[in-house]
């Protein structure tokens, strides 16, 4: 699966995600955790120091709950990688970055329909907050 980064598409590395329920028993200090779109981000707070990567599922293009989860995790102090996984399109990429995501894992079909140039162009359409104010 392609991984959208700020620089280009990359092949997503093989990652073995564990569920939130498995965190307590894990002894590793660099866990990769899968979070569904209905996850309460606060349940991860006691374990943030053990987690290197949190993959947040986006089951559909219109399901934006993952954006809220990402924002909450960043507010809670999560410093590791946040990866949006699933049904996102290039128009949603600027919002994903603004919410704290580092990467977006998409299907081969989405990557074929929307090459990296579209993802990069989407980030260039968004004005920084100070320019939005000046633009009126």
Task: Describe the structure in brief.
This protein has 136 residues and is an alpha/beta fold. It is 30% helix and 21% strand.
The secondary-structure class comes to: alpha/beta
Q: Under CATH, the topology is which?
A: TIM Barrel
CATH class category label: Alpha Beta
Q: Please count the helical segments.
A: 5
Q: Percent range for helical residues?
A: 25-40%
Secondary-structure topology with pairs:
Blueprint: E1 2-4, E2 9-11, E3 31-35, E4 51-58, H1 65-75, E5 81-86, H2 93-99, E6 103-105, H3 108-113, H4 116-125, H5 129-135
Parallel strand pairs: 3-4, 4-5, 5-6
Antiparallel strand pairs: 1-2, 1-6
How would you describe this structure to a colleague?
By secondary structure, this protein is α/β, with parallel strands linked by helices. The protein has a single domain (2-135), classed as TIM Barrel (Alpha-Beta Barrel). It contains five helices and six strands. A six-stranded mixed sheet has the order 2-1-6-5-4-3, covered by helices on one side. It is globular.
């Amino acid at each position: 699966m392609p991984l959208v980064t700020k620089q280009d598409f990359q092949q997503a590395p093989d990652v073995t995600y564990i569920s939130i329920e498995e965190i307590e028993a894990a002894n590793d200090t660099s866990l990769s955790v899968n979070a569904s779109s209905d996850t309460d981000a606060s349940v991860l707070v006691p374990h943030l120091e053990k987690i290197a990567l949190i993959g947040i599922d986006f089951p559909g293009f219109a399901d934006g709950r993952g954006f809220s989860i990402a924002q909450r995790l960043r507010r809670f102090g999560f410093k590791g990688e946040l990866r949006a996984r699933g049904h996102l399109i290039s128009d949603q990429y600027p919002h994903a970055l603004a919410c704290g995501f580092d990467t977006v894992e998409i299907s081969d079909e989405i990557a074929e329909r929307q090459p990296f140039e579209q993802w990069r162009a989407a980030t260039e359409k968004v004005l920084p907050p100070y320019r939005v104010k000046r633009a009126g």
